[in-house]
Structures are given as structure tokens and as C-alpha cells.
Amino acid sequence: MVTFAYVSEPLEVTCDESGAEGEKLVGGNTDIFTHAAILMSRRAAEECIGELRERAPTPASQYAACHVLRDKHRGTLRWLLGPSGPLLGRAHVFLTEKPFLAVRKIVALLDAGHSPGVGLALDPRSSARAVTLYREGPRAFGPARWTAFLDSFNYLLRAKNGQGVTMSVDDAFLLVDELRGPGPAGEIVELLWQARPRVAAFRERLLEAPHVFPTLDPLIPAIVRAVEFWGRGGEPVSIVHDRQTTLTDERIARLRALLDGRLAGLRLAESFLDARIQVADVIAGVARRIAVDELAGRGDPGFIALLRPYVDERSVWGDARTGALLGQHPDAVMSG
């Protein structure tokens, strides 16, 4: 007797991002990276874009977040995010506060078992240290030295420093030596000082054989989280993603191995050929603008409330006030 095992078809999720600057987490054009993953049919996405064009017209061939973010279209934006709009329950947004991600990567170096990689989790103690350092550091060290500290490690933890900048372990630890001392932030930096051999070994591994994943790029953990979110019922997930140079064939294969069968496939597509990517672009861009405005203290409480149901509670977010408004889980340990 022949039996046939039922294999469920993978969910096809479509993704795009906003605020990508590769591994540059400090001093870039924006401090916020957003990644949107939507579960919509092509027809539903085309209808969504068609409705947006009716409500917030533009002659542009491709619809984008900037078109609906104009002040005169605030009503359309409320419709888009609200309960009567097309996205609720169909869109998931992963937020990354880039400087906080840099801090989490630095603190991860205190772990003796740390190695280059996508770095999906910190243990609770390391996570708490990252939050403490991020919130206490600017006040304890002063804004200028705090930024210099983050910037030096941003370059140090990249396989390629980029922009003609060469950062050595010796250079980075000159500032570490100045900042270590009493107080919560200083004590964590003291631990980093003690971990200098581990940091040097980490840097050597990056130089000798750059990891298949960029160590600091927020795109990789965002994709992992999209698969985990939409596949939380055990379903395999297939991703259609807007074109990204980060997503090479080698890295896609590595992602599939990392996710142990949960990622059924990942293909890159052009946004002008797939309305779903345009919808993902819109929600990613809208989410980033709302988050940026709120972080700067000029946010709209109504828009924050509308955005909250879409935001992953384990986003990489360090600011306490805005994190509470965005529904961030207080014990989130993602993306170490």
C-alpha cells in the first residue's frame, strides 16, 4: 500500500525595506531601518495600490511611501493603516534602531562563545547590559565621545571598513581606555576592556575570512524574523524580496540552512513588476517616517497608535519611551 505524506505549500511573503545603509549603523542618513513583510495576493496588492492612487494621486509609474506621506494625504494614511484599510493582519514590520544594534553587537563581544555571524540572540544578561549601556552611555560619556565610541566599533566590526577608514583594535581601544570606570556604563566598558583579546581575535577572523553574512547589516536578522513570524504555525515560508545586493546566492543558501527548512526559498524581483513589493515599500517607508518622527519628539500619537499593531514586539529598539509606544517587549533578545 502506497501512502502519501501531505506537504503544505509554503506561504509566499513579499518584503521590502526602508533606511538600508548596509553595515553603516552610526552617522548615516537615518538611524532607523525598517523591514516590511506582507502576506497578500497579487490581486489584493494591485487593488491596494489602485486605491492609493485614487486617494493620493501621483504621476509616478511606481507607488512609494513618499507619495502617501505628504501632509495633504494624512487621511489616506489613516485609512491605509486603520481597521478599514487593506493592511491590518496582512503586514508585519521589523524595526531596527541602528545605534542600538551597534551597542548590542559590541556587548555581544563580552560573551566568550561569540563568533561572527548573523547573531540572532543575546542571553538575558547581555541584553540587559546593552540596554544599560545604550541609555546611560551618552549621559555618562558626553554625546561627542559616545558617538566616537560607537563609530569606532562600527568600523571595527565590519569586514571592510569602507569610506577609506582604517580602524584597528588598538585605535578603538584608546577610547575604551578613556571611558572605562565607575558607573553602570563605565563598568560595562571596563568589561569590554578586559575582553580586548577576544575582540582582537574576532577582528582577525573577519579579516582572514569575511563571514558569508555582513556582521552588522540589519537586513539579515529582519528576514529571519519575517520567516519566524509568518511561519509561526509551522508553515514553510517563501520570500519574494525587492532586489538587494546583500542577498547573494551564497547568502540566500546560508539563510535557508540557518532556518532549517523554514525558509522554502527566496527570490529577488523588481518592484515595477510586482505590486506586492510596492505595498511592502509603502508600509516600510511609512513605518520608518512615523518612528523617526516619534524618536525626534515630533510624532503624531494617532499615527503611532495605528502603526503599533504592525510592529514586531521583538524589534531592535533601545529607546524606552518610544519603545513602550511601539509595543516593544521588555525582555526582547533578538539580534545580538
Give an overview in words.
By secondary structure, the protein is of the alpha/beta class. The chain has two domains: 11-97 and 215-325, Nucleotidyltransferase, domain 5 (2-Layer Sandwich), CATH 3.30.420; 99-208, no CATH class. It has helices at 42-55, 65-68, 74-81, 98-108, 124-141, 143-156, 169-179, 184-194, 196-208, 219-230, 249-258, 275-295, 301-307, 320-325; strands at residues 11-18, 32-38, 91-97, 237-242, 263-269. The protein has a five-stranded mixed beta sheet, sandwiched between helices. Helix 4 (98-108) packs across helix 5 (124-141) and helix 5 packs across helix 8. Residues 1-6 have low confidence and may be disordered.
Topology (SSEs and partners):
Elements: E1 11-18, E2 32-38, H1 42-55, H2 65-68, H3 74-81, E3 91-97, H4 98-108, H5 124-141, H6 143-156, H7 169-179, H8 184-194, H9 196-208, H10 219-230, E4 237-242, H11 249-258, E5 263-269, H12 275-295, H13 301-307, H14 320-325
Parallel strand pairs: 1-4, 4-5
Antiparallel strand pairs: 1-2, 2-3
Helix pairs in contact: 1-12, 4-5, 5-6, 5-8, 6-7, 7-8, 12-13
Organism: Nonomuraea deserti
Protein name: DUF3800 domain-containing protein
Strand order of the largest sheet: 3-2-1-4-5
Low-confidence stretches: 1-6
Q: Could you spell the SSE succession in H and E letters?
A: EEHHHEHHHHHHHEHEHHH
Q: Helix count?
A: 14
Strand content: 5-15%
Mean pLDDT metric: 90
Note the overall shape: globular
Number of structurally distinct domains: 2
Helix/strand-derived category reads alpha/beta
Helix coverage percent of residues? 40-55%
Distance between the termini: 50 Å
CATH level 1 class label of the largest domain: Alpha Beta
